[in-house]
Amino acid sequence: MAYQCNLGTGQVLFVENRGDQTLVTLVSASGGQQQSQRNSLTTGPWTAPPSVFRTTQGMFLLRVETHQAQHYIQVQSGGMQALQSAPSLVQADSLPLQQVAQQAGTESPAMAPMQPMEPMQPMQPMKPMEPMKPMDPMQMQMGDMQMQMNPMRMKMGDMQLEAQPAQPAAAKPAAIRSAKRFCTQCGQEVAAEDRFCGNCGHQVQKA
Questions:
Q1: What is the count of structural domains for the chain?
Q2: 106: alpha, beta or left, given left = phi > 0 and alpha = psi -120 to 50?
């Protein structure tokens, strides 16, 4: 149960009973700004709606009735204070209270539950790259002259010139050099089959 009471001069008193707790909130509005003071007292469950009085001194008193006792709370703009004994209510004015759904500012609106995140979609496998197509042979034409690269070919009128691909050069066999012979007497060169020097007649030694 929750009640509110308009105290005037921009002040509103909210009272609520939750189990054994009595929640008291004083909301003040001044200069476009709103301030609130809140107290919680252990009183026990209420047996009757609360009452609010305004004394001749201009103070406000809140009375809460429970099975144990009557509880009085003094309400001022500077704060709230629980009284140990019942005050005098002679010539005090009773202020009307209005029942409300809940005490203002005591509960924050329930947050909507967060929606679960959707699972991420698996990535599609990448398609293999298509092999590159071989490049077409380059062709160039100027008037009657046509030229083509790879293989190299040139045509002009009825004349056609085509370059054959270069073949790897065959390894040339190393020339076998025959050992030369000289006469040991005069130094004249002699043939391999000569037995005597043709110059001086000296016998040539066989190799």
A1: 2
A2: alpha
**Which of residues 81, 100, 119 is at a domain's end?**
100
Q: How far apart are CA 54 and CA 5, in angstroms?
A: 11
Kindly state the helix (H) or strand (E) to which residue 82 belongs, with its residue range.
Answer: strand 79-83
Where a domain ends, among 52, 85, 100? 100
The whole-angstrom separation of Cα 203 and Cα 108 is 134
* Of 77, 11, 12, the residue nearest 3 (C-alpha): 12
Give pTM, 2 decimals. 0.48
Residue 143 belongs to a domain: no
Q: Which domain holds residue 74?
A: 2-100
Q: What share of the chain is helix, strand, coil (3-state, %, to 5)?
A: 0, 40, 60
| Residue 133 forms part of a structural domain | no
**Model pLDDT for residues 22-55, shown as the tens digit of each residue:** 999 999 887 778 888 898 999 999 999 999 999 9
CA-based nearest residue to 13, from 81, 98, 90, 86: 98
